[in-house]
Amino acid sequence: MKKLSARRRHPLAALVVLLLALAATGGLYAALAPAGTAQADDTAQSLAIDEGKKLYAVGCASCHGTGGQGTTDGPSLVGVGAAAVDFQVGTGRMPAATSQGAQVPKKKVIYTQAEIDQLAAYVASLGAGPNIPTKEQYGTEGADIAEGGELFRTNCAQCHNFTGKGGALTKGKYAPSLEDVSAKHIYEAMQTGPQNMPSFPDTTLSEQNKKDIIAYLNEVNGEDTESYGGLELGGIGPVAEGLFGWIAGLGGLIAVAVWVAARTAKAKKS
């Protein structure tokens, strides 16, 4: 009988080798970039929150409270999210002036975008809320302008009128014009509902719906837009414009008729 030269392998050897290989792979993965990147992201976020807290203490705490809990001079910021901060501060509405009218108007922005991002990071840390949208979210690629017009007329035209020119509300309040407003800020306004405006979260108007509305506003307020119906009267809609046409048109015709009749009567007398 031939003598066996190879030693018999232990039955658990394969399992041990497999475990060692897995441990080595896990160790290499933990030591390389992904963990380092995540740690760097966390550090950057923490720094942004710390810097935002300092800015908040100087420019916002007097009205909104030291911890964002709100005061008699300003609402709570807990849960409003980063998007609300980016909109309010990015359009100059916040910090608000000491004396103001029925609502806070748009004015010159006093913070840089980096500072706005830091303020937004701090306020977002107080409670979950809508995030600042990405370019992919508010971009109009693949948007349906006709659908956007339908959605705008259904949900927005009552206040902003049919082409976003703005309009008066009750008690001195108003819906601002949407001309020259950035797509990001329009998206954020729909998401957060600033001041008198209701909010339209994704459960009410989807991300695609918001894109369609932004595309419609870009189309009707673009530089190459023409008023094919003549004098647009501010684009306030067919009912108001039609009423003006009837009153002004009929009034003008009556005035001309009276003038002609008077001239005719004078001519006959002479």
Automatic annotation (TrEMBL):
It is found in: Cell membrane. PROSITE patterns: CYTC (PS51007), TAT (PS51318). InterPro entries: bc1_cytC-su, Cyt_c-like_dom, Cyt_c-like_dom_sf, Cytochrome_c_Oxidase_Subunit, TAT_signal. Residues 1-30 form the signal peptide. Binds 2 heme c groups covalently per subunit. It is a multi-pass membrane protein. One of its GO terms (molecular function) is quinol-cytochrome-c reductase activity. Its EC number is 7.1.1.8. GO terms for cellular component: plasma membrane. It holds the Pfam family Cytochrome_CBB3. It is an enzyme of class 7 (translocase). It catalyses: a quinol + 2 Fe(III)-[cytochrome c](out) = a quinone + 2 Fe(II)-[cytochrome c](out) + 2 H(+)(out). The chain crosses the membrane at residues 243-262. Residues 47-127, 143-221 form the Cytochrome c domain. Its main location: membrane. The cytochrome bc1 complex is composed of a cytochrome b (QcrB), the Rieske iron-sulfur protein (QcrA) and a diheme cytochrome c (QcrC) subunit. This is Cytochrome bc1 complex cytochrome c subunit.
